[in-house]
Amino acid sequence: MSDIPEQEVPQAESFATSSIVTTVFDSILADVHEGRLLPGTRISDSDLAEKLGVSRTPVREALQRLREIGIIEASASRFTRISIISPQQTADAMVVWVALYGALVSEVISRVPPEMVLAMRADHDRFVEHLMNPDPQKLATANADFFAHFVTLSTNPALQRGITSVVHQIRLGSLHLPDYIDLRALSVAQDLLVHAARDHDRAAALGSMRMLGLIEIPVEDSEQADANDKVVRTEF
C-alpha cells in the first residue's frame, strides 16, 4: 500500500460555483459601467442573489472580487455599496494606469495582428462619433473597448491583473468628473496608437502614451476653479 496521500480531486460543484461567481461579477460590473448602479448605491447580497437566481455564496465572492478592484466599498456591520471615487482618486489611478499600460505597450506592440488593428480602428471611430454629441457613458465604453485589446496579448499575468484592476476605477470615476477631460487630445493619442500598432512602432506607441500622461483629470469644475483663482489673486 502506498504511503503517498491521495490528492484531493476538485469537485464539479467548485467549477460550477466559479462560473456562477464570474457571471455575477460581470453582471454587477455591467450595471455599474452602464449606470444602473450609481456610486453610493447600497448593495444587498440577498437581494442580488434573488435577482440573479443564485445562492448568496457566489454573490458574496463576486462582491469581494469587486471590492478588491475598488468598485465596491464596505464598512463592517454598516454598509456595502458602489464605491464613491473622487476626481482626485481618478487622477491618481490614471497615473498608475499610464505607467502600467506603457509597460504593456512595450511588451506587445511588436506582435499586434492586423485584425486587432482593425478592431482598434473601429472602436476609435466609434469614440470620435460620440465626440459630436458627448455622452460620458458612451465615450467611456468606446474608450475602454479600445484600450482593452492590447491586454489580451500580454503574457504577463501580473500586468494584466494590475491594468484590469485600475481601469475599472478610472472608468467608474470618469463618469462623475466635474468637467470633461481634453477629449481631443485623447482622440489624437488613440489615433497615434492605432498607427503605431499597425506599423509595430514601439517609439510611436510610447509617444502616444506620453501624450495620454499629459492629459489632466479635472478635480474641480471650471467655474469653481475660476472662482478659486480670483480669490487667490485678490490675496496678493
TrEMBL record:
<keyword id="KW-0805">Transcription regulation</keyword>
<dbReference type="GO" id="GO:0003700">
    <property type="term" value="F:DNA-binding transcription factor activity"/>
</dbReference>
<keyword id="KW-0804">Transcription</keyword>
<dbReference type="InterPro" id="IPR036390">
    <property type="entry name" value="WH_DNA-bd_sf"/>
</dbReference>
<dbReference type="GO" id="GO:0043565">
    <property type="term" value="F:sequence-specific DNA binding"/>
</dbReference>
<dbReference type="InterPro" id="IPR036388">
    <property type="entry name" value="WH-like_DNA-bd_sf"/>
</dbReference>
<dbReference type="Pfam" id="PF07729">
    <property type="entry name" value="FCD"/>
</dbReference>
<dbReference type="InterPro" id="IPR008920">
    <property type="entry name" value="TF_FadR/GntR_C"/>
</dbReference>
<keyword id="KW-0238">DNA-binding</keyword>
<feature type="domain" description="HTH gntR-type">
    <location>
        <begin position="18"/>
        <end position="85"/>
    </location>
</feature>
<protein>
    <submittedName>
        <fullName>GntR family transcriptional regulator</fullName>
    </submittedName>
</protein>
<dbReference type="InterPro" id="IPR000524">
    <property type="entry name" value="Tscrpt_reg_HTH_GntR"/>
</dbReference>
<dbReference type="InterPro" id="IPR000485">
    <property type="entry name" value="AsnC-type_HTH_dom"/>
</dbReference>
<dbReference type="Pfam" id="PF00392">
    <property type="entry name" value="GntR"/>
</dbReference>
<dbReference type="InterPro" id="IPR011711">
    <property type="entry name" value="GntR_C"/>
</dbReference>
